[in-house]
Design goal:
By secondary structure, this protein is α/β, with parallel strands linked by helices. 36% of the residues lie in helices and 22% in strands.
Length: 409
C-alpha cells in the first residue's frame, strides 16, 4: 500500500473487508414459539447469536448422489406454489441443464420460481436453459456481481450456501451444488452429504433465503412464514455464517464446543485450512484425551488447499489426532460430531468458509439424528488410510508458501 498505493488501495477496498453491514444487512429471523428444548449446546449457540433450536422436525440424510437427486426431484415435482433456490454452482452440464429445465416446467405450470446463484460460482452456467426459465416466468438473480462500487468490497465474499425450499414447507440442503460431480452417476461422482428437513426448522431457512434474495434486488414477495407440516422428533438449529451475520457464530461456536468437548471431536471436510483458534482448540482437545479425528480426501480437487493443509495435519497428528485420508474418490461432505451434538451443511473447515463466505450449517441435538451422522462417518472411515507422512524439505517450503495464503484459499 505504501509502494503502489494506486494498485494496493483499490484491491484492499475490494478484498480487505469481511463484515459489511451496509451491503449485507443482518438476517432478520422470524420470532415464533419454538417450545422448550433441553440441549446445552443449542442454548450456547443461541446465546452467541444463532437462531433458536426447534423440536418437532424431520430430517432425512441423503448420503449418495442417487438419493440426493431423487429427493431433489421429488421436492421440485411436488411444489405447488413456490420454489426458492440458492446455489453456488449450477453447472453447464447435463445435470445442471436438467435441473433448470425442471424448474422451467414448474414455472410454466404457475409455480413461483426464484433462483439465486453466486456470480463467481456460475462463471460457466447453462445459459440457454436459464434464458428459457426466465421466458417461462422464473426469476434468476446473481449474487454479488462483479460490477459494483469499489467501496462495497464484496468481490471476495462469495455465497456458498445450497438451499431449495418448496412451498415454504420442505427444504433440501447440505453440501452439494448442481452438477455432474455432485448429482450425476458413475464412478467419478463425489462423496457428499445432503438432507431434507420439514418442521419448524424450515422457518430460519426461509429467512436466510429472503435475506439473500433481498440483497440482489427487490425483496421477496408473498408470505414468508413456514407452512405447517406434520411434525417429527428431530431437534435442529440453523446456524448461518457470513458477512450478513454480525458475529462469527459458526466459527466461534465450534471453537467453544471443541474446547468443552469431553469424549469426541470428529470432523469431515474436503479442505482443512483451519483458523489459529480452531487449530488450537483441536490440539487442546487431543492433549486432554478427547478422541479427535479428521476425515478428508486423500487428494482433493483443490491442490492449493492440499498443499496448505500439510503443516496443520502433521502438527495435530504428532499429538494424537487421527487423520483419515479418504481413498475412494473425492470427499466433499462437510459434517462433524462433538460429543452428543452433530452438524452438517455447506461450510468447509477452513478460513474462507468460516470467516468469509456466506454459509449454512444445521446442528442436530437429538440422539437419533446424531446417530445417523455418526453411522455415516464410521462407514466412510472404512474407506480410508490412516495418517500423513513426513514431508521433504522442498515440500515443506511449498507448503509454507501456500499456508501464507490460507485466509483466502
Amino acid at each position: 500500500m505504501l509502494i503502489l498505493p494506486y494498485v494496493a488501495i483499490p484491491l484492499f477496498l475490494m478484498l480487505g473487508f469481511r463484515k459489511q453491514g451496509s451491503r449485507f444487512p443482518a438476517i432478520q429471523f422470524t420470532n415464533f414459539d419454538a417450545g422448550t428444548v433441553d440441549a446445552p449446546a443449542a442454548d450456547l449457540l443461541r446465546q452467541m447469536g444463532a437462531p433458536q433450536p426447534t423440536g418437532g422436525n424431520t430430517l432425512t440424510l441423503l448420503d449418495t448422489a442417487d438419493t440426493a437427486r431423487a429427493a431433489l426431484d421429488e421436492l421440485i415435482n411436488g411444489a405447488q406454489e413456490t420454489l426458492d433456490i440458492l446455489f453456488y454452482i449450477v453447472a453447464p452440464d447435463p445435470v445442471g441443464e436438467r435441473f433448470v429445465e425442471k424448474l422451467t416446467t414448474k414455472a410454466k405450470a404457475g409455480v413461483k420460481v426464484r433462483l439465486n446463484i453466486d456470480r463467481l460460482g456460475t462463471l460457466r452456467r447453462p445459459h440457454r436453459a436459464l434464458d428459457a426459465l426466465r421466458a417461462a416466468g422464473g426469476e434468476v438473480r446473481y449474487f454479488s456481481p462483479f460490477l459494483h462500487p469499489p467501496d462495497n468490497g464484496h468481490l471476495n465474499l462469495r455465497n456458498h450456501r445450497k438451499l431449495v425450499i418448496a412451498d415454504r414447507a420442505r427444504v433440501w440442503t447440505g453440501g452439494r451444488n448442481v452438477g455432474a460431480e455432485y448429482l450425476g452417476t458413475g464412478p467419478d461422482v463425489w462423496t457428499d452429504l445432503s438432507f431434507t428437513v420439514t418442521g419448524p426448522a424450515v422457518q430460519p431457512f426461509i429467512d436466510v433465503f429472503a435475506s439473500d434474495w433481498d440483497v440482489t434486488g427487490r425483496a421477496v414477495s408473498g408470505d414468508l412464514h413456514r407452512a405447517e407440516t406434520t411434525g417429527g422428533t428431530a431437534v435442529l438449529q440453523v446456524v448461518p455464517s457470513g458477512p450478513d451475520e454480525p458475529e462469527d457464530v459458526l466459527h466461534d461456536g465450534l471453537v467453544t464446543l471443541i474446547h468443552r468437548s469431553r469424549a469426541r471431536v470428529w470432523v469431515a471436510t474436503p479442505y482443512f485450512v483451519p483458523t489459529e483458534e480452531l487449530q488450537a482448540a483441536l490440539a487442546s482437545a487431543a492433549r486432554r484425551g478427547v478422541d479427535v479425528r479428521l476425515l478428508l480426501p486423500d487428494i482433493s480437487n483443490q491442490r492449493t488447499a492440499d498443499f496448505a493443509r500439510g503443516p496443520y495435519l502433521r502438527e495435530l497428528q504428532a499429538i494424537g489426532v487421527k487423520i483419515n485420508r479418504f481413498t475412494a474418490g473425492m470427499l466433499h461432505a462437510k459434517a462433524g460430531l462433538i460429543d452428543d451434538v452433530a452438524w452438517a451443511g455447506s461450510a468447509n473447515f477452513d478460513v474462507r468458509s468460516l470467516l468469509l463466505n456466506f454459509e449454512l450449517a444445521l446442528f442436530c441435538h437429538d440422539a437419533p439424528t446424531v446417530r445417523q451422522i455418526e453411522d455415516w462417518y464410521l462407514a466412510k472411515s472404512k474407506n480410508c488410510e490412516l495418517g500423513v507422512s513426513e514431508a521433504s524439505l522442498p515440500m515443506r517450503i511449498v507448503e509454507g508458501v501456500f499456508r501464507l495464503g490460507a485466509p483466502v484459499l
